[in-house]
Structure formats: structure tokens, C-alpha cells
């Protein structure tokens, strides 16, 4: 007889492992299935985000920024550093250690909360049975009262540039370079492409980013995206917009990329090429034909507002369902579903999910953009405060960018907070907290912010919404 659980979670990424821990905390007998193995063949919990995504990329972003600062910016502080060098294998080793520690942390949390870990590939069958195929090919079937599918996503391949994980790599391969490539190509000017391009550009690579769209960062507030493009150009990221890759050829350890843009046919040769054109849901071989769960033509699982599928007792969260492919969105969906299974009311506010690009300066936003609101015909007031006018940013020698707050012209309710600059992610989170409580720009303006802090830029932007900023000249009302 198959072992029975109250909840079986397929996938141990940010959606799955958080759902499993929460379900166990709520008194449900819970198991979590994961097949991913590290380089040594050991089970590695944490999914893409922890193993080959958010966490390792942030480790490299921080290391590369420190190198860049030591090389280019220490002199302004009066610090004289001679012959700064980067030891790439040591940097990669540090990243690997951080990942290993985090994986161990999840295993410890599973143990502490009584979550059963099942190693292998999970597949949902009919009647909420889950088939697990181990690495050695042995198969076991488990019965569940409830199933949460959290299988995550994987990089999209494109035929003109097939990944070989040597010369042409995906985002995973780009985290393991053992030397700085002299010439680096990146296909895709999205979050992943910009972050990974930034890492290697700081370390000395000549980086060209090839983007098919004519508009840069189309989902980001236009004013922020425009500023970002200017800043990245100063950082010597060569971003080619409206450039469509038509083919590539690997020869003698380098790759020639063919693409078309406004100037016609182009050819560029690189030592390494990163393909970062997006990600697709992992739903292939996760659902049996008779499971009853429906997916769309792009492979996403159909769910309602509380992540329930077409089968009672079966839920799906994270990258396999609609919405942004963000780790924090997946985690909150996992918690919501676990609470629902336990009979509690829970909901995710999809209108207030912050998004961040961890370049330097960071780019972050929450709520609606100016172009969205104008497109919807909403009358708005906008307040902007530049970090160039922030004493704290000056002290840190980090004054690029600004804070932008958008409020409803009639009610003064904050509808969007967008930041490009130092600690953008943290400042946007402050905006998200205010918006969750229905704050007006005036409310933010009336709060006391400590001085000197970067947070004061948020305070001043809120004041600027209604023409009351103190530390910049206010726009004259027409």
C-alpha cells in the first residue's frame, strides 16, 4: 500500500519548500519531492533561485561590484590601492559555498518542521496519486489528500544559438566561468541578461547585449528605463535594441553571431555568448494525461486567484502559473495555498508584488507605472527626487538615479513607487508597505524619516507629489 500524506509538494524551490514548511507548521503531514542534484550528485533543495539563479547571481554581483569599486572608485575616498586583481575561481568558489550553505539550511528547516523529503522526479497521476522516479529508475507511488505543483521554470532555448554550456551558455553556465571572457555577447536585455552582463563587464569583459525588442525594459516605468539605458551606456554595456539574432557559428573556441537591426545584417564575434531570452514553465512530464489538470499552449497550468487547478485538492504555484516569475511571488503563493488547505483564509495581493533588477544602480518598482496609468486614463500627480540631492548618497559616492512616486490626482493615494539608484529594492519595499495600507503621498510626507538616510529620497519624492519638497526646487503648477 502506498504511503499517504495530507500534502505532497512537487518541487523544492521558493514556492515548493516554503509551501511544505508552512503546511507542516499547520499540522499537515507533508512531503516534498525534488530531483535536482548538485555537481557532486547530492540532492540540492532550493530550486533554480537558490542553486543557479537569484542567490548565486547576487553573490557574483556583489563580488564584481566590490572589485569595480576598488579599481575605479576608492581613489575618490582617499584610498590608494595598487594592482587590484580578480581571482575568478576564488569568486566562483565563494558563490558555491553560499549556495551550499543555503541548501543545507533548507534541509535543516525540513527536519525541524517534520517535512519528509522524497528524492526523485515527481509526476501527478489521476486521483491525487504522485509517482516518484528515483535517479536509479525505481518508481514509487504516493497518495495525497492535496497536491501542490511547484516545478519551477527553465531557460528558453533559441534555435539560432543552441546552448553547448561551453562557448554558448545559458544563465546557469554564465555563473561558472573560470576566467573573464575578453568579448562577451548576451542575447536578451531582460533582468537576467543585464545582471549577468553587469557581472562580467565590471571584471573587464567587453559586453554587447543583443535585444530583439525596440523598447528597453518595456515592463519598467519609462522614465526609469530611459535613465537606466543612459547609466548602462556609461558603464560601457553596449545594448543593441531592435536586434534579432538569425544564427551563430562556433569555431576555434569562439562564436560568431549573426543578427539584423536597423542597419541591416550584422556579425559579431565573442569568446562567450550568454542566451538569456526568458524562462518557460517546467510542466512537461509533471502531469499524466489523466491527471485532470489543464495547461495552456505555453505550458502554464491554469489556476484561479487562489492557485487552485481544475482538479479539487490540486494546486499550482510559482513559475508554472500566470504572473511574474519571481521567487517572492512563488513563496507567498505557497503560503496562501498551505493556509487554504488548512481551512484558513489567505490571499496574495497581486497588485503589489515588487520587482527588482540587481544591477548597480538597482532598478525596482511596485504598483503601476506612469505609462500604465496614463494608458488607463487615470489623472495622476508625480513626485521625483534625485539621489544627486541626497546627502547620504553623496557621502557614499553613489548618486545616480532617483525615486519616483505616482499618486492619484483626486485621492492622493499612492499608485506606484519606482526607483533607480542605491538600495532601490529596500526603498521600493517601504513604498509597498505604505501602499498595502492605502497610504496617500501626504501620509508619507507627514512621516518622520531619519537623517541622513537614503530613505529621505522617498520622503522628498512623496512631498514633491504635491509640490512640497524641501530639498529640491518644486515644479511650478501650470
Automatic annotation (TrEMBL):
Binding site for NAD(+): 188-195, 211, 278
Cofactor(s) of this protein: FAD
Enzyme Commission number(s) from the entry: 1.8.1.4
Listed GO CC annotations: cytoplasm
Listed GO MF terms: dihydrolipoyl dehydrogenase (NADH) activity; flavin adenine dinucleotide binding
Biological processes per GO annotation: 2-oxoglutarate metabolic process
Record key words, sorted: Cytoplasm, Disulfide bond, FAD, Flavoprotein, NAD, Nucleotide-binding, Oxidoreductase, Redox-active center
Binding site for FAD: 58, 122, 319, 325-328
EC main group: oxidoreductase
Cofactor binding: number and manner: Binds 1 FAD per subunit.
Disulfide bonds: 49-54
Domain Pyridine nucleotide-disulphide oxidoreductase dimerisation: 353-462
Active site: 451 (proton acceptor)
Cell compartments where the protein resides: Cytoplasm
Reactions the enzyme catalyzes: N(6)-[(R)-dihydrolipoyl]-L-lysyl-[protein] + NAD(+) = N(6)-[(R)-lipoyl]-L-lysyl-[protein] + NADH + H(+)
Pfam family membership, one: Pyr_redox_2
Domain FAD/NAD(P)-binding span(s) in chain numbering: 5-334
Record text on subunit structure and interactions: Homodimer.
Miscellaneous comment in the UniProt entry for this protein: The active site is a redox-active disulfide bond.
Family of this protein: Belongs to the class-I pyridine nucleotide-disulfide oxidoreductase family.
Protein name (record): Dihydrolipoyl dehydrogenase
Gene: lpdA
